[in-house]
Design brief:
With 141 residues, the chain is α+β, with helices and mostly antiparallel strands. The protein has three helices and six strands. The chain has a single domain, classed as Nuclear Transport Factor 2, Chain: A (Roll), CATH 3.10.450. Helices cover 26% and strands 34% of the residues.
């Protein structure tokens, strides 16, 4: 990835997904937070209400990551391809084991910032083309 300081560099959806995956693997949200737009939205097909601001998401994700650290549960976010909802690149989400697939995540980017993350159970994660790439995942997992 090119240095983000380059004036003409444009953050891509794949970059945004990689940064989100890195957060999920390192359980550190600071880098991801630095890329969020103020009107960032976070939605899940499993949850009725969306989060519609950067601050609301940060209030949600920090304790969630702390809980994951304390319980030592392992989540996996693998780069993949699964065209849907106007996106092509996705993250294939799994928990406990890389084969225990839970859903796919799509990122939206606007003006060089991450404007949204959508977690989806449709399309199904087993319909996604897997890459074997888990950004930020240490080799011990």
């Amino acid at each position: 990835m090119k240095p983000l300081e380059e004036k003409n560099y444009q953050l891509t959806e794949k970059d945004a997904l990689s940064i989100y995956a890195k957060m999920m693997h390192t359980l550190d949200s600071s880098e991801f937070e630095s890329f969020l737009s103020e009107d960032f939205s976070y939605s899940s097909q499993k949850v009725l209400t969306d989060m519609n601001s950067k601050d609301e998401f940060i209030e949600y994700i920090r304790p969630k990551l702390e809980t994951i650290k304390k319980t030592n549960s392992s989540g996996y976010a693998e780069l993949g391809v699964c065209p849907a909802y106007g996106h092509t690149d996705c993250l294939i989400m799994a928990q406990g084991d890389k084969s225990n697939l839970l859903g796919v995540a799509y990122a939206s980017v606007d003006k060089g910032k991450i404007s949204g993350i959508s977690l989806c159970i449709v399309p199904t994660p087993d319909s996604a083309e897997r890459s074997g790439i888990y950004p930020g995942l240490s080799s011990k997992n």
